[in-house]
Amino acid sequence: MKLIDPFPTNNNHCTYYIYYIIRYIMLMAFSAIATSLTRFSSLRNSQLNFKGIARVVSNSKSITNNPSPSRKRRCIRMASTASAEHKLTAPFGSWNSPITADLVSGSEKRLGGTAVDAHGRLILLESRPAESGRSVLVKESGKAGEELIDITPKEFSVRTVAQEYGGGAFQISGDTVIFSNYKDQRLYKQSISSDSSPLPITPDYGAPAVCYADGVFDSRFNRFITVREDRRDSSLNPITTIVAIDLRDNSIQEPKVLVSVNDFYAFPRLDPKGERLAWIEWSHPNMPWDKTELWVGYISENGDICKRTCVAGCDPNLLESPTEPKWSSEGELFFVTDRKSGFWNIHRWIESSNDVVAVYSLDAEFARPLWIFGMNSYEFLQSHGEKELIACSYRQKGRSYIGILDDVQSSLSLFDTPFTDITNITSGTGFLYVEGASAVHPLSVAKVTLDDHKSKVVDFKIIWSSSPDSLEYKSYFSLPELIEFPTEVPGQNAYAYFYPPSNPIYQASQEERPPLLLKSHGGPTIETRGILNLSIQYWTSRGWAFVDVNYGGSTGYGREYRERLLGSWGIVDVNDCCSCARFLVENGKVDGDRLCITGGSAGGYTTLAALAFRETFKAGASLYGIADLSLLRAETHKFESHYIDNLVGGESDYFEKSPINFVDKFSCPIIIFQGLEDKVVPPVQSRKIYQALKEKGLPVALVEYEGEQHGFRRAENIKYTLEQQMLFFARLVGHFKVADEITPIKIDNFD
């Protein structure tokens, strides 16, 4: 393959070099001025305070909360600070940008949950790429303007590997935190208010073979109730139970099993008196978004479960997946389920008659799929009149909404906040801590203060950000456009977020269309969201178009949309990604000859399947992607061991849909990235597809990372992955030279 130089020389070499020296000097000057102006603007707007008014919506009306046309126009203008005539003209993909791979890899922290201590201070768990992905609990200092204070000692990392994806790694009660330590997977107890060292409360089994998640304190019996995953007998088929851990003294005892027999458990939740325990359970071959059961167990005087009742999910004539049970202060049980409507809505249990009633019905999702433990989509609040209300969030048509739900009046009051994407909510004293983001806000935690009647927002302030310096680069941001495009099924549409190229310094010629990088999200049963992600801005600020696809099978659009993928994985997702790319080409948004695709995990499978079974894309990048479905079924962990059966179909489909079996159909370059400690998609998958493509003679490269699991956490590996994808695509299909100085990896059958 010939690499085309976008700046061909002519016979007048002297004129050529003088022209480009002058052009380079002008470029540096423009870049310096733009960066200074951007930082000045960000300083003026860095202190976010917001006052909003709620809207009350009756139960019978649909809810819309779209910004006004003028507000939309203002958002569009934010993306550019220079008029076209003052921009430098250069090919798409070759633009210089201050959003570097170092910035992306080192600045974006991950959030692992929030809680409130006895003093009303925020406690949160952040993962730090600069510390090799170490997860640290931090707390508010209590003084305005001061930095958050680390709670976790340097020799600890707060993370559980229960069900491989973890979540629910810590719990707060008063001034005490119980957390899972990553290295040995034991539970530790620590005082938040003193400098005392964490003390283990679970046995040392000699290896991290037993892990815990999603626990709650039981003050009645002075114990900790949690989900336990025991891998001592089998790492591929561990035993999952709900256990109780004695906290009465410093002696370490074997946990007491309270609930067992089923394949999976989550959300053990105690009522205010400690007399009833609610939990979610499910069994193979179901996933927790397919079919689950909600149970309530009655606790005897000796602490055992003496009687149990199935609240939801046990009726064979009613398909549902209840999740997130929670007791009100009055002892009423609430939960979220998708019975009848196919949308996850909040319901309440009538204990006296064992009936379930909807609190509020809406074609929207008030919960997310249970990939990780510890999700918290709603909270109970007390109003000025001592009436109990529910603070909740939901997803509808690609964005999030937050408000107050009045169970008695069956009404929902919405708040207008800067967040368009909301995940978890934690209740404080007179305020809420909200985890959210938007097109210009990275994942953040905001302190939302409400009035006495809990009817409106009186103050909104961001107190933690995954990327606090991101506003410095606001003029470079590409704002996502939610697009709805036709699929191959007549009358059926799918959704995606499209990010056009954006840079205040550069423009391309009017005749050129940008290269496209299409991302196929992992899961596959999750939803990609249109929020600020610097890894996306890395591409768009250099002149790439980027599209993030919510193909059929994604969440956020109800059960019917979610189940499009059942038995059709490798077909529906691939078709939708190809349809999205063609839609953008047909609408003149991107260059049809420079279409690239990337994806991780299940998204890596979609990437490989699209490259093997379609001819839409010209190159691809697979991050810990699946090449052999049969091998995945044989070696994957318990949580997903039957998931694949639901998605793939019959035995013959395992062969027909595995890209590894159709290497002869691959016809374009591929780069592959893999963690060597990945137990979800073992390294043998990547090595197998790499070797086969190498033997066929296609340009291919394989990058393996020691110490990385399913998803990369170390800053240096995140950086390397991003840069090598960019350079790989540029060298092989881009027809441009990247502005960054990147040492290229050796590409087999090319270099």
Identify the notable features of this structure and list them briefly:
globular; 8-stranded mixed beta sheet; 751 residues; 12 helices; 39 strands; alpha+beta; disordered N terminus; 30% strand
Total helical segments: 12
- Strand composition percent: 25-35%
First-residue to last-residue Cα separation: 10 Å
The largest sheet, given as strand count, sense and whether it forms a barrel, is: 8 strands, mixed
Which structural class do you get from the secondary structure elements? alpha+beta
> Low-confidence parts lasting 5 or more residues at pLDDT below 50?
1-81
Shape: globular
In terms of topology, how is this protein built?
Elements: H1 13-45, E1 55-58, H2 69-78, E2 88-89, H3 101-107, E3 110-116, E4 122-128, E5 134-139, E6 149-150, E7 170-173, E8 176-180, E9 187-191, E10 199-200, E11 210-218, E12 223-230, E13 239-246, E14 256-259, E15 264-270, E16 276-282, E17 293-299, E18 305-312, E19 323-327, E20 333-337, E21 345-350, E22 355-358, E23 378-382, E24 388-396, E25 399-406, E26 411-415, E27 421-427, E28 431-437, E29 444-450, E30 457-465, E31 481-486, E32 493-499, E33 506-507, E34 516-520, H4 534-540, E35 545-550, H5 559-562, H6 572-586, E36 595-600, H7 602-613, E37 619-623, H8 629-635, H9 643-648, H10 651-656, E38 670-675, H11 683-696, E39 700-705, H12 715-734
Parallel strand pairs: 2-33, 34-35, 34-36, 36-37, 37-38, 38-39
Antiparallel strand pairs: 1-26, 3-4, 4-5, 5-6, 7-8, 8-9, 9-10, 11-12, 12-13, 13-14, 15-16, 16-17, 17-18, 19-20, 20-21, 21-22, 23-24, 24-25, 25-26, 27-28, 28-29, 29-30, 31-32, 32-35
Helix pairs in contact: 3-12, 6-7
